[in-house]
Amino acid sequence: MSSTRKVLFVFTSADKTLTGKDTGWYLPEAAHPYYVLSPHFDIDFAAPKGPNPPVDPSSTELFKDDIRFLDDQTVTSKLANAKKLSGVDPDDYAAIFYVGGHGPVIDLPEDPVNVKLASNFYRAGKLVAAVCHGPAALVNVADASGKSIFAGRHATAFSNAEEEQVGKVKDVPFLVEDKIKSLGGIYEAAEPWQPKVIVSGEVITGQNPASAQGIGEAVLRNLQK
Fold first, then answer.
1. N or C of the chain: less Cβ packing under 10 Å?
2. Model confidence over 39-54: pLDDT tens digits?
3. Cα-Cα-Cα-Cα dihedral of 14, 18, 23, 29, to 10°?
4. Beta strands, E only, 90-152
């Protein structure tokens, strides 16, 4: 299948927050975009450590309607056979999408393999998308001149207000909203838990779980142009 018909979903491999709470990737933030995109594109899964990236157990409790994603035989096969990030060739894909959850703030920002991979997508003019805490994976991504992917760009991610409401400020090494602003990004947010998706050139960001469907639809629209 040509690269124009393939999308890479990147998951965290982290299963604990800084305070030792269970974490991982967030169920609806993978499920909703997957079911928007999978009828149109071949989707591969990848994570720093490869197979069986951990799902955040709280997300399976809060989003029981999305358990079908974990019961889907195609999905379970993709999760069991998830590629290691080190084995991914950006030339094989039209877009990269980062699934959220608190896990991505733990392992992806400082992972040199991830930073290089996302930077290669970005520098090639390919679509780079991330939802909720997923944009944390992009904070060290830059263009060839070293300019941050967020510099001067409108973007969103899980807001400080939302992080405070879930009581997880101390569970992550930084607040994604603050980090985007510190990199020169023009951060925007809806009210807590309301959907917000921003398309800024080839970079698409979503604020929270409620934005997962919308970011899938935005990726689809942009790939079908």
1. C
2. 999 999 999 999 999 9
3. -80
4. 95-98, 127-131
121: number of Cβ within 10 Å:
23
Number of H helices, E strands in the chain: 9, 9
User: Which residues does residue 131 pair with via DSSP β-bridges, in sequence order?
Assistant: 206
Helix or strand (DSSP H, E) at 7: strand 6-10
Statement: residue 122 has pLDDT above 60: yes
Identify residue 87 by its one-letter amino acid code.
Answer: G
> Cα–Cα distance between 11 and 5 in angstroms, integer?
20
Distances (CA, A) of 7 to 34, 77, 176: 10, 16, 24
pTM for this model (two decimals): 0.98
Distance (Å) of CA 33 to CA 99, 156, 170, 183, 206: 9, 17, 29, 27, 11
Alpha helices in 89-211 (DSSP H): 103-107, 112-123, 160-165, 176-182
